[in-house]
Design goal:
InterPro entries: AB_hydrolase_fold, DUF1023. It comes from Modestobacter versicolor. It holds the Pfam family Abhydrolase_8. The structure is a single chain. By secondary structure, the chain is an alpha/beta fold. About 30% of the residues lie in helices and about 10% in strands. It has one domain: 3-Layer(aba) Sandwich (Rossmann fold), CATH 3.40.50.1820. β3, α3 and β4 form a beta-alpha-beta unit. It is globular.
């Protein structure tokens, strides 16, 4: 995560720069969707110098992020999904997790039987909610 986070940050900066020079108005929405240890990588991207070049961050089954809650993540919108059936989301191995109600994210719907690999299951409500966040049309849990 210490190498991947800064790489993700630079990739997002490059994407933002390319979109700015392309002259599109308004700029397209950028959403980082991270699952499991990928949320730790996203947390390291936030810690890189400068502001994270994204509009929204979706954290799925997160084992926790260093540095506090959602307000520390440098994006306007932070969403999270955690199921009681996903032990990774409740362990907090790497810091505070969106599964903690005080984290400050907008919870996405997750069924109580969703396991750690079920957030992208098209038969579960989480995937549709992720799509709404990416499209910028909802995502309220």
């Amino acid at each position: 995560s210490r190498r991947g986070g800064p790489s993700l940050d630079r990739a997002l900066d490059g994407l933002a720069a390319a979109r700015t020079t392309a002259g599109t108005a308004p700029a397209p929405r950028t959403t980082v969707v991270a699952h499991s240890y990928g949320t730790v990588v996203a947390g390291q991207a936030v810690r890189a110098p400068g502001r994270l070049a994204a509009d929204a961050l979706v954290l799925l089954g997160s084992p926790g992020l260093a540095g506090g809650g959602a307000e520390q993540l440098e994006v306007d919108e932070v969403f999270g999904a955690a199921s009681p059936a996903d032990p990774v989301a409740w362990l907090g191995w790497f810091g505070s997790a969106p599964s903690d109600f005080s984290y400050g994210d907008v919870p996405l719907p997750a069924e109580v039987t969703e396991g750690h690999t079920d957030y992208y299951d098209p038969d579960r409500p989480t995937l549709a909610a992720i799509g709404e966040v990416v499209a910028g049309v909802g995502g309220e849990g």
